[in-house]
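Annotators were shown the component list below and the corresponding predicted structure, then asked to write short factual statements about the assembly.
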Amino acid sequence: MSDAAVRETKSTCPYCGVGCGVIIESRREQIIGVRGDSDHPANFGRQCSKGSTLHLTATPEVIAQTRLLQPMQRLQRGAAPQPLGWDAALDLAATRFADTIRTHGPDAVGFYVSGQLLTEDYYVFNKLAKGLIGTNNIDTNSRLCMSSAVAGYKQTLGADAPPACYEDVDHADCLFIAGSNAAWAHPILFRRIEEAKKKRPGLKIVVVDPRRTDTAGTADLFVQIQPGTDVALFNGMLHLMLWEGWTDSNYISTRTRGFEELKATVRDYTPDMVVQTCGIAKETLYEAARLFATSKATLSLYCQGLNQSSSGTAKNAALINLHLATGQIGKPGAGPFSLTGQPNAMGGREVGGLANLLSAHRDLANPQHRAEVAALWGVPTVPEKPGKTAVEMFQAAADGEIKALWIACTNPAQSMPDLATVRRALERAEFVVVQEAFATPTTCDYADLLLPASTWGEKDGTVTNSERRISRVRPAVPAPGEARHDWQIGVDFARRLEALGIGPRTGLFAYETPEAVWNEHRASTRGRDLDITGMSYAQIERAPQQWPCPADPASGGKTNGNATASPASAPVVGKKRLYEDGIFPTDDGRARFANTVYQPVAEPRESRYPFALTTGRLRDQWHGMSRTGTLGRLFGHVAEPCVQMSPGDMTRRGFTEGELVHVTSKRGSILVPLQASEELASGQAFMAMHWGAEYLSGMSSAGLPLAGVNALTTSAFCPSSKQPELKHAAVKILKAELPWTLLAMAWLPAERALAAREALRRLMVRFPFASCVPFGNAAPLDGSGGAQRTGVLFRAAAHEAVPDELLAEIEQLLGLDAAGTLRYADRKRGQHRAARLQREGEQTTLQAVLLAGDTRAEAWIRSLLQQELPAQSYGRLLLLPGAQAPVAVPARSRQVCTCFNVSENTIEATLASCSGSESQRLSALQQTLKCGTNCGSCVPELQRLVRRVVPLKQAA
Ligand code: SF4
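Structure shown to annotators:
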């Protein structure tokens, strides 16, 4: 291979729990491309809009502007961090943690880690906390994601094991999707659902959700419940199933226990009671129960709508009750199937990386399990006292109980609920270590010590996806700068603690490779429900495998199989589907019905807070957007932060599209533009979970920085799973009076754009409201249509004009200080304009603009800039407040297809001339514009547009 040859490395996508296999293309030490791995059973070569742009998040320009490249120490809170060497950084961390442990005891420290970590990283940090330091204060952002699913499975089926697999979609006769917008959150699984429906139109899809999402758009039956009423719905369905004789009495009597108690409970869930509670029609309730119970095979798919709730465990268990009562489990196409949000929430659960778990699905509360793990690790004991879960950990830090915090690969200052408390915790903690790949998350601002970590494309280890499939994550390039692997950082820190006399003995962390860590994890699973003693690293690399996969399958997992690696060529047989024998991992082999009772949301709407705010994902963004937020092209679908409400509520309250509103809960208040959404019922509001202080901020009248959507959410949590209710908060929405507005935007060179955005972000707190996002030109991913371009858009509002110096700072960052920039200013009226045009050959285009004081001309000026339209004839009009364009500038509407840069307007215009059936019109549209023919993420939206746009002939 020549020096410049393209290398190909098989790995896994780092975003969602679908766990798609990818092939990374790299040249020398740079990632240059990515494509789906056609051999990987999770995606068979497909990728969604996020996965297919992964390589663009790893360009040298993005790395230089966003990555943390060396350890940094902040000598004083609020000051800029200073670089230091790895040895000094780890010595400092070890000394500060050791001092805290000696002075205040092991429970004075806490580790908050992440479902983004690999299994090996997780294993090391879990052992470090519980085995070496002697505290169970280790929890993870998976607590915000999956802990209700864990608790629900354990309460009913006896073990935290999703029993179904992706292939079950192909065998199901009814898909019951509850609390999941899979079309956006698990796109490649959704492609499989679309395919199944196309092949078998008789497949029924039922969607339960308070919002009419793109997923709901594909449903045969949409059950639009009031937020948080899922348990009432599921119990009501069981009531009807009993009444109609749709339950499987043989399965109930031979495979389960506890049905009589549940039966007595659901007697009260009459159709009248349920339709009133859930806000649905009786026919809808009846049809949902009928389809679930009487279909030959019913597969339920569920996610955060059930999990992120103050009764999350009950919601999970109530749904599993339905599967047990109807025998819809343990057969092809049937079973409860929780979809994991994060790429390795499952791996974290497997190694026991939560405050209440231990390695290999063992329970901290179980003395025998503690003894087993202590023996495995070679330590005298594992502490008995339960650790602090996510919300409890930050509360304890805010109260001064936890004094040293180690945060790895997650951004709690953006993603935790009730951010005021989280920020108090980060400020009060005496020592905060943040181990991160990116320098941009808000949590980094609170770190005393920043440790640079490797990330996708560089990391080496394993992850487990939603269907229990373990895949290899492999490095295509070395980590940049001085970044190190997360497991290595943990091991180096642990060895230093050992040297300082912390822990029962030395030598607990004698790992030199991630495989050595994984082998120890594998040994810990022997005889457990997730036994993986029959797999090796080499075998997973050859073919990703599902657990359980014991060395001796005949032992049914109760094996003493040798954990020595099997040869790579040896066949591996993981288990596709669980409980096909009707035997569950409980004392007597029977599943348990949970006696689930409906509890309303923790914070019901009331006259002072009349709206139910829910949060959720966007199609093209991931979590706090440290990675997806580096790509302007991924802001084409949803360009800027907003809060949505129903058009009817907007009319009733006299609100208009785009105006600024205060959204206020009992915990905080934010300012954000308003958008109408047909997806919402009256009384509901929605805001994407991604919008944190990195993109949306400002300064409240009380002088406090605004912190994004989670300033509003509640930390009320489920008593069993301790998962907070991120899906519901009661809010009020009021008009904001900020008459002075500003819009500034510019195309910038790739090596400057993200740094400029980051610098502009720091200016956001100088305004009562501000947002700052990148935008892009979405050039084709194969490079056939020119270079990717990135721009930055800054928006702000204030009571009156801001000082000229602040405007000058913004102009300088956007290149509006260059010679030849056109200007206009009327200080008395608070008006300020600047525009930079660029001539290339015959063409003059607008490259940067700032409108301050009056932004009424935004629509056409923004179109001119973003679409790079000829601008020579607009000249001075760009500077006139409120000026209209002399000729109509084609409006740029929302981008629907990211791969081929196709906008909503273009799709609507094309559809108007397409006739025939819905599927004929969709394929005509796809043939004409190519939209939806690459990653497919926009297909549900295209289908919605097909239904909405009437063909011209028909309309005539
Ligand atoms: Fe990645 Fe998309 Fe696959 Fe999820 S569905 S793993 S985000 S490519």
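Statements collected:
1. Confidence is low (pLDDT under 50) at residues 556-567.
2. Residues 13, 15-16, 18-20, 43, 47-48, 50-51, 186-188 surround iron/sulfur cluster (CB under 6 Å).
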